[in-house]
Amino acid sequence: MLYREAGDFKTSYRDDGQTFPIRLDRVAYYAVLIVAFLIVPFVINDYWANAVVVPFLIYAIAALGLNILTGYAGQVSLGTGGFMAVGAYAVYKLMTTFPEINIIIHILLAGGITAIVGVLFGLPSLRIKGFYLAVATLAAQFFLVWLFNKVPWFYNYSASGQITAPTRTVFGLAVTGPSTSAAAKYLICLLFVFILAWVARNLTRGTLGRKWMAIRDMDIAAEIIGVNPLSAKLSAFAVSSFFVGVSGALLFSVYLGAAEVGEAFGINKSFLVLFMIIIGGLGSIFGSFAGAAFMVLMPVVLKNLLVGQFGWATDLAAHFELMIVGALIVFFLIAEPHGLARLWALTKEKLRLWPFPH
Amino acid sequence: MLDAEDGETLLEVNNIEVIYNHVILVLKGVSLSVPKGGITALLGGNGAGKTTTLKAISNLLASERGEVTKGSILYRGEPVAARNPAALVSRGVIQVMEGRHCFEHLTVEENLLTGAYTRKDGGAAIRRDLEMVYDYFPRLRERRKSQAGYTSGGEQQMTAMGRALMSRPETILLDEPSMGLAPQLVEQIFQIVKAVNEGEGVTFLLAEQNTNVALRYAHYGYILENGRIVMDGPAAALRENPDVKEFYLGMSDEGRKSFRNVRSYRRRKRWLA
Amino acid sequence: MDQLVFAAEVFMNGLMTGVMYALVALGFVLIFKASGVFNYAQGVLALFAALTLVGIQQGQVPFAHLINSIFGTHLEYFGWTVPVVLAILLAGAVMVLLAFLVEKLVLQHLVGQEPIILFMATIGLAYFLEGLGDVMWGADIKNLDVGLPQGISESIESVSANWFGYGFFIDRLDIWAAIIAALLVTALVAFAQYTKQGRAMRAVADDHQAALSVGISLRFIWVMVWSIAGFVALVAGIMWGTKSGVQFSLSLIALKALPVLMLGGFTSIPGAIAGGLIIGVGEKMFEFFIGPMIGGATENWFAYVLALLFLVFRPQGLFGERIIERV
Amino acid sequence: DLVVPNLSYRTGAYGANGTQYADGFNDYFTLLNERDGGIGGEKIQVPECETAYNTEKGVECYEATKDSGALVYNPLSTGITYQLIPKVSVDKKVLYTPGYGRTSAKNGTVFEWIFNAPANYWDGASVAIKYLLDENGGDLNGKKIALVYHNSAYGKEPIRTLQVLAEKHGFTLTQLPVDAPGQEQKSQWLQIRRDRPDYVIMWGWGVMNQAAIQEAANIRFPMENFIGIWWSGSEVDVKPVGAQANGYKALTFHGVGTDYPVYDDLQEYVIEPGKASQGGEHVGSVLYSRGMYAALVISEAIRKAQELAGTPEIDPEQLRDGFEQLDITPERLTELGLPDFGPEIKMTCDNHGGSGMSRMQQWDAKAGKWNLITEFTEPDQDVLKPLITEDSEAYAKEAGVTPRDC
Amino acid sequence: MNTQTDIAIADRQLGGTLMELRNITLRFGGVEAIKNISFDIREGEIRAIIGPNGAGKSSMLNVISGFYVPQEGEVWFRGERRGPVKPYEVARLGIARTFQNIALFDGMSVLDNIMTGRLHRMKAGFLSQALWWGPAEREEIENRAQVERIIDFLEIQNIRKTPVGRLPYGLKKRVELARALAAEPQLLLLDEPMAGMNVEEKEDMSRFVLDVNDEFGTTIALIEHDMGVVMDLSDRVVVMDYGRKIGDGSPDEVRNNQEVIDAYLGVAHD
Ligand SMILES: Nc1ncnc2c1ncn2[C@@H]1O[C@H](COP(=O)(O)OP(=O)(O)OP(=O)(O)O)[C@@H](O)[C@H]1O
Ligand SMILES: Nc1ncnc2c1ncn2[C@@H]1O[C@H](COP(=O)(O)OP(=O)(O)OP(=O)(O)O)[C@@H](O)[C@H]1O
Ligand SMILES: [Mg+2]
Ligand SMILES: [Mg+2]
C-alpha cells in the first residue's frame, strides 16, 4: 500500500489544484527532472541524441500542441506538418536575416508567426466541424507546403529549394549547425519541452482550458453557458500552432539541420503527430509524451530487434515493422481506447486500491 | 391480471456483479426473476444500478466497458452471455434504452422500421404493426417524415417505444419509459404497456423512477439501492409498505406531501445506514 | 475561340479524372455511412486489392519472399496464370475474407467508441495492410492488365476535330471508369436507400448501442459494408492500377479522394460522384489556366481549398446529412 | 574490416526503385569478398539500413552506423544527402552520391567530404541539350522544350542550368512540376498536347516516371523526343507501359545489360552460391547496374586509399584522399570486367565530380532492353563551372565554411 | 389540496417584470413550433411552463437563451428590447439554464463542469494563465471557493472529482443545476430538472429550487411534467399546446382551466 492518497489531505484549494496531488507522483516527477537536466546531458551520445531523444523531445512539443487543439479543444487537425513548416521556414528566415539575434528568440518568434498562420487557417472551424474540419485543415497542409516550395524568397533563392541551418550559439555553445554536440541539442530541446509542457499544463487547468474542453465536449451547450466559440477556438488554434511552430523550428534548426518542405513537413508529419496524441491519450499532457515516445521509439526498437537481433533482411524487417506497429496501434486501442495515458491512470487507480480489486 | 406465482419464469438473474472499467463495482449481487407474461418493475434511486441491470440482461455492457464478473443471467434457462445482443432480439428480448437513443438521421418512420429488422413475417405484417404504433402514438404519425434528431424529447421517447413494439418481442425491457413525458402520456404509455401485456402476452421488465405509476401497473416489484436489492414483493404489497410510501411515493400520513414542505424535514432511509 | 476549345477539353478531362477520384471516395462513403468510421485504410485497401488481383492473375506464390528467406527456397510463381474474371472473383473473395477479419479482430472490440478512436484503428489497419501487402506479394511494381483499353479515344478525337477543328483527348480508360462508376453508384444508392439492410446500415452509423438494442447485428452489417467497400476498392485499384501500375503509391490516391468526400458530403453516395466531378474539373481548369502563372503543381492544394470554400457555405458538404445541432 | 553501410530503401513510394539499386550495391561487394577476399585482403562489410526514402530515418541510419567504423555513405536520396552534408563534414565521413545529391558538391574546395562523380544533375541537363543540339544540327533556336519535373529539391535541380542553356541556345523552356507521387499528370500532358513542344525532358522518380511515359503514349507524343534523366530511365519505368514506350530515351552514365565479363564472376561467386542480395532477381537491370557501379567506384577509391596509406585498414580521411586521387581509366574498367561501362573517372582535390560525361540510351520495347545510342558525351563546362562556383560559394557563406586551398 | 401552500404563495411579493416575450413566432421549415406567444416573467417568481410533448416549451427556452432566433416577436429583458444576440452574450447578461437532454461536458470532472459556469467572470490575462501566476491563480482560488459553496449547497461534495460521464442521470441533473447556479444568474431556466427522478430526489431538487429562489432571489422559469412539482412550486404557470398558449395564471387557475385539462392534464389534478 505504497501508493495512495489516504492520509494525504489537502488544506487549501491551491494544494488541491496542484499538478501532482499524490506525494509519490511528485517525488517521481522531481526525480525525472533531475535525471533529465543533470545526468542525461553528461552521458548522452550522438546516436541516442539524434536517433531517439531529440526527435522524441521535439515531437513531444508538436504533440502537446496538437493535443491542445484536438485533445482539449476538440478540433481535429491534419495541418500539423504545414504548421511545422511555417515554424521551420520562419526560423530559417529569421536566422539568416538577423544572425546577431539569439536563436532562442528566433524560435519563439517562429512560434508566434505560426500562431498567426494557425489562426488564419482556424477561421473555418467556426463553421466546419469534426472530420470535415480535419480534412479542411489538409488544405492548410498542402497549401503551405506548396507555398514554401514555390516562392524562392522562403528558401533564400537556393538552387534546389533546400534550406540549411547555419551555426548559432547560446551562451557560446553551438545549438544549431553541424558541429553541435549531442548534449547541446538535447539540452536546448529539453528546455523548450520543459517550459512548454509547464505552460500547457497551466493553460489547460485554468480558464482557457475549461473553455476549450467545454467547446470540445458540446459546443452548443458551451456557447449557451457563455463561452464565446470564436475566441475559444481561435485561441486553441493560436496556442496549438505556437507549440507546433516551435517544434517545427527545432526540428529543422536543431535536429535535421537541412530540410526540404515536401519531404520533411509532408502530410505524413501531420498524421504522425495525430497518431502520437491518439495513442498517447487525447486531452492529456502525459499522453503527448507517451505517444511521442511510442511513435519515435517503436520503429527504432523494432528495427534493432528484427535486423540487429534476429538478422532479418532489411526489407522484410521493414514490412514486418509496419505490420507490427499497425497491430500494436489496434491492440492498444482495444486495450484502452483513451490511450496510454488512461492505461497508466487506470493502473495507478488499481495500485491505489491494491490489494483490493475494486 | 396475471398471477406471478404460478407462471413460468422467463428471465432469471442470479446474484450478478457488474464492474465498469475493471475498477468500478456497480452491482453487488443482484438477483431477480421475471415471470412470463408479467409486468415486473425495478425501482430505485439514481445510480442504484437499474440501467446497468437491464444492460447486463441484454448484453449491452461490453460497449460501455462494463462486464458481469459474477453470477449468471438466464433467459429461458439459457445464459444470455452466450449470445450477442442482436441474437437476443431474435430470441424475443428487446430493450428500450434510457435516454431514447433514436437514430437521429433517420426519419421517425425509418426509426420504427428498424425495429422490425429481425422480423421475417413479411412487409404486410410490418405495415400493419406500423399502423398499430401510429394508433398508439398519433403524434408520431404527424411527424413520420421528420428526422428523429429534430423531434422533441417526448416524441423521441415515443419513437423509441414504438420501435421496440415493432419487433414483436416476447419480452420488453423498458428503461424509464415515462421520463420526460407529459402526465397524460405517461398514463397512456402504461396503458399501452398493459394492453400489450394483456393482449399479446408480452412480458415486461421496467425500470422506473415514477414509482407511483409503476406500482399501479406492475405485478411485482424490486427495489434496488446502491447495487443491491433491498426489498421486493407483489406490487400491491409494496404500495402499502410504509417505507415505500414515504420514500418512493411521496406520501405522508395525511396524503401527498407538498414539495414546498420538503425543506422543513428530511429523513433518511434506514437501510442505507 | 482556341482558349474555349482547350477549356472544353480540359473540362472534359477534369470530369473524367473526377470519376477516377470518385471511385476511391465511394469506398470511404460506404464505410462512413455504415459505421461512422472514417476509414483511413481505404487507399491501402485499394492497393491491397490490386496487388492481390495481380498476384492471383499471374500465379504468384504468396509470401514467397518470406518463405524463401526462411527455408532458402526459390519460390516465385506457381507457373500458371488465372483468367481475368476468375482472378477478379478470387480477389473479391479475399476482400470479403479481409472484411470478416477486420470485423472480428478490430471493429468488434471497439463498438461504441468515439469516431476518432475508430479512425485511429483504421490507421493501424492501414499500416498493417501496407506491410502485409508487401510481405505477401513483394514491393516491386506490377503491371495490371484486365483487358481494359487505354489511350486516346480516336472516335472522340475525330468527331471533335470535325466539330471544333481540334481533336479532343479523352482516355478510353477514363470512359470505362465513368461507365463503371455510374453503375456502381446506381446500385449502391438503391441499396442504401431502399433496402432493409441499407436502412440498418444507416442506423448503425447513428448509434451503435441503439442498433444493437433493436437487434441489428453490428457484425453482419460491418462485414457486409467492409466487403462492399473492399469490392469498391478492388474496382478503384483496377482502374488506377491499369493507369499507373500497382505499387505503393496507389495507396496515396486516398488523399485525392478526401477533398471529394468533403465536398460531396461524407455520407452521400451521389455526393461522391458530384464531388469528384467538381474537384476534377476545378483542379484541372485551375492548373491549366492559373497554374502556369503561379508556378504550377497546384492540384494538391487546390482541391482542398475548393472543398474548404464550399464547406464554409455548406458545412455538411453538398449532399451530406445535415449536422444536427440541438440542445 | 572495411565498413560501407548501405542506406537503402526497399519500402515506401520508391521502394521498387531502391531495391534494385541496393541489390547491385550489395552484390558487388559480395563479389569482392568472395572472389578476392575483400579489398587488399580486408573484407568489406555492408550493413544495410532501411531509410524508406525518409530523411529522418536516413539520419537515424547514419547515426546508427557511423560509430561502427563506417567509411562512406551512399543514401540514394537527394533529401538525405542534403541532411548528411553538414554532418559528414563534422564527423569526417565520405559521402559518395553518384548522379544525385547536391550538384555544387562537385566543388571540392567547399565540399571536402562529398563526391559526386561521374556526373551530376547539371551535367545531365547539359548533356541532354547537347544531344538535342546534335540532333538538330547544332541549332535549337526557336525550339520549345518542356521540363516535366518532380516537384522537389531533386526535380528542381536542373532548372537553373536549363534556363542558362535556353538563353544560350535560344530555345524556350516550359516548366511543368508534378507533385509527388505523380500518378495524376493529366493537366501537364494536356498542356504538352496543346503547346506541342519539340522535346520533353523529364526529371522524375518512382511512379511519376511511368505515369508520364504512359501519358506521353496516350497523347501520342513521339517517344524519340522524350528524354529522361538517368533516374527516369530504368526498366520499371517503361515496362508497364508496354509497346507504346518504344523509343523512349534516357541518359545514363554507365552501361546496361549483362554483357560484361564481370557477370560471369557474379554468377559464379555470388548468384550461384545463393549469396545474391534478394535472390538476384534484378541482376543486369539499369538500377542494379548503377548500384553496382557505385560500389565499384567506392571499392576503387578504397584500393587507392590503401595504396596511398600503405595499409589495408584505412580510415575515412584516407578514403577521402583515395577519392581525390582516384583515376578509373578505361583500361582499369576492362580489368575489372566492365569494359566501356562508365566514363573515365578522375577526381582531384578541387574537382569532386569527375568529367560529368554521360550517354543516351533508348528503350527497345520489343526486345525489352535498353540500347546505348551515343558515346559518352561531355557537358558544357563553360556554362556549368560558373554556376557551380556560385552555388558552392553561396553555401560556403551561409554555412560558414572556409574553402580549402587545393 | 394543501391549504398551507396557498397561503405561502399569497404571501409572496412579486417584483416588476424581468423578462417579457411579445408575440413570439418560431418556425422550422414547415413546422411552426411557437405560434404568436406572449408572456412575462416577473422578478423573483418561479414561473412554470407546461404543455404536452412537442408543444414548443423547450423551443421557448431556446428563444429566451438566444439559441433560436424567432421569426417574429420581441424579447424584452430588464426593460430593454433585446436585439440580435449570440447565446454567449445572453449568458453574460445573467441568464443561465439547464438542458432537457443533459448537456454536461462529459470529459471533465464535476468540479470543472461547475467551474465552467463561472467562465465569463474570470478575466485573468493570457500570460498570467500561461505562467499560473498572479491574477490567474488568485482568480482560480476565489472562484473555486464560490463553486465549493454551491457544491456544498447541492450536496455533491463526494463526487467533486468524478468525470461526469460516469454519473447516474439524477446526479448529472444536479451537476447541471450547479453549473447554472455557478453563473449567479438573475434568471435561471430549468428544462425538466426533475425528469427521471424518484420522489425523494424530486424533493431534494425542489428544495434546491426553492432555496435558490429564496436565498439568492433568483428568478426561475422551469419546464416540468410532474404536476405535483409544478403546482407546489410555481407562482404562475404558462400552458402551451401545439405552439399556442392555452393558459396562463396561478396554479389554481390553470388546473381548473378546461382547455388545459383536455389538452394536457387528462384528468383534473389535485
Ligand atoms: N459507463 C460507466 N462507467 C462507469 N460507471 C458507470 C457507467 N455507467 C454507469 N456507471 C455507474 O454505475 C452506477 C449505476 O448506474 P445506472 O445507470 O445503472 O443507475 P440507474 O439506477 O439506472 O440510475 P438512473 O435512475 O439515474 O438512471 C452509477 O453509480 C454510475 O455512476
Ligand atoms: N431545430 C429544430 N428543427 C426542426 N424542428 C424542431 C427543432 N426544434 C424543435 N423542433 C420541433 O418543434 C416542436 C417543439 O419542440 P420542443 O422541443 O420545443 O417541444 P417540447 O415542448 O419541449 O416537448 P417535450 O416535452 O417533448 O420536450 C417539435 O415538434 C419539434 O419536433
Ligand atoms: Mg438508469
Ligand atoms: Mg422539451
Automatic annotation (TrEMBL), chain A:
GO cellular component: plasma membrane
Keyword Iron in record: no
InterPro entries associated with the record: ABC_transp_permease (IPR001851), LivM-like (IPR043428)
Source species, domain of life: Bacteria
Keywords: Cell membrane, Membrane, Transmembrane, Transmembrane helix
Chief place of localization: membrane
GO molecular function: branched-chain amino acid transmembrane transporter activity
Segments passing through the bilayer: 27-44, 50-69, 101-123, 130-148, 183-200, 236-259, 271-296, 316-335
Membrane topology reported for the UniProt record: Multi-pass membrane protein
Pfam families: BPD_transp_2 (PF02653)
Statement: the UniProt record of this protein carries the keyword Magnesium: no
Subcellular location: Cell membrane
Protein name in UniProt: Branched-chain amino acid ABC transporter permease
UniProtKB/TrEMBL annotation, chain B:
Assigned keywords, A-Z: Amino-acid transport, ATP-binding, Nucleotide-binding, Transport
Biological process terms in GO annotation: L-amino acid transport
Domain ABC transporter: 11-251
Pfam families (UniProt xref): ABC_tran
Keyword ATP-binding belongs to the record: yes
Gene3D superfamilies in alphabetical order: P-loop containing nucleotide triphosphate hydrolases
Listed InterPro entries: AAA+_ATPase, ABC_transporter-like_ATP-bd, BCAA_Transport_ATP-bd_LivF, P-loop_NTPase
Domain of life of the native organism: Bacteria
Keyword ATP-binding: yes
Xref: SMART domains: AAA
One MF annotation (Gene Ontology) recorded for this entry: branched-chain amino acid transmembrane transporter activity
Family, similarity comment: Belongs to the ABC transporter superfamily.
Name of the protein in question: ABC transporter ATP-binding protein
Organism: Paracoccus onubensis
Taxonomic lineage from the root: Bacteria, Pseudomonadati, Pseudomonadota, Alphaproteobacteria, Rhodobacterales
From TrEMBL, chain C:
Membrane topology: Multi-pass membrane protein
Xref: InterPro entries: ABC_transp_permease, BCAA_transport_permease
Membrane-crossing segments per the record: 6-30, 37-57, 77-102, 109-129, 175-195, 216-240, 260-281, 288-313
Pfam families, per the entry: BPD_transp_2
One Gene Ontology CC term in the entry: plasma membrane
Compartment(s): Cell membrane
GO molecular function terms attached to this record: transmembrane transporter activity
Major localization listed first in the record, in broad terms: membrane
Protein name: Branched-chain amino acid ABC transporter permease
From TrEMBL, chain E:
InterPro entries: AAA+_ATPase, ABC_AA/LPS_Transport, ABC_transporter-like_ATP-bd, BCA_ABC_TP_C, P-loop_NTPase
Keywords: ATP-binding, Nucleotide-binding, Transport
SMART domains: AAA (SM00382)
Domain ABC transporter per the UniProt entry, residue ranges: 19-267
Domain of life per record: Bacteria
SUPFAM superfamilies reported for this sequence: P-loop containing nucleoside triphosphate hydrolases
Molecular function in Gene Ontology: ATP binding; ATP hydrolysis activity
Protein's name according to its UniProt entry: ABC transporter ATP-binding protein
Source organism per UniProt: Paracoccus onubensis
